[in-house]
Design a protein that fits this description.
By secondary structure, the protein is of the alpha+beta class. It is 15% helix and 16% strand. The protein is built from 1 helix and 4 strands, in the order E-E-E-E-H. A two-stranded antiparallel sheet has the order 1-2. Strands 3-4 form a two-stranded antiparallel sheet. The longest helix is centred in the last third of the chain and has 16 residues, at 67-82. It starts with a strand and ends in a 24-residue tail after the last helix. This is Protein kinase domain-containing protein.
């Protein structure tokens, strides 16, 4: 079992959820060249969430896909959803539960 804590609660799950360290908002991409070149023409400044580094983490591609690996990925994703961690939400209150809709619609 892994414990995950935020400022006022702890969620315990049996799958790895990276620790949340905070957010970056209104980042000026001109100050971080050439690394943020892709954001120079955007209407809004980039935002980011800072998460714990997980060693050997890989993106899922068809070239590294296995049936067992995908089954484990789906199981882990379901457990993350059960822990009420919402995707695409840069605010740490997302761990308190969905704001609207069903848990299966993140």
């Amino acid at each position: 079992m892994k414990g995950f804590g935020n400022t006022d609660s702890v969620i315990v799950v049996s799958y790895m959820i990276p620790r949340y360290y905070g957010t970056i908002e209104n980042l000026d991409p001109k100050l971080y060249q050439p690394h943020l070149n892709d954001f120079l023409e955007d209407e809004y400044p980039p935002k980011a969430i800072l998460l714990e580094y997980i060693p050997n983490m890989q993106m899922l591609y068809w070239t590294n896909y296995t049936k067992k690996g995908m089954d484990n990925f789906i199981k882990g994703l379901q457990q993350i959803h059960e822990a009420l961690v919402e995707h695409s939400d840069v605010y740490d209150d997302c761990r308190r539960g969905p704001r609207k809709g069903n848990l299966d619609r993140f």
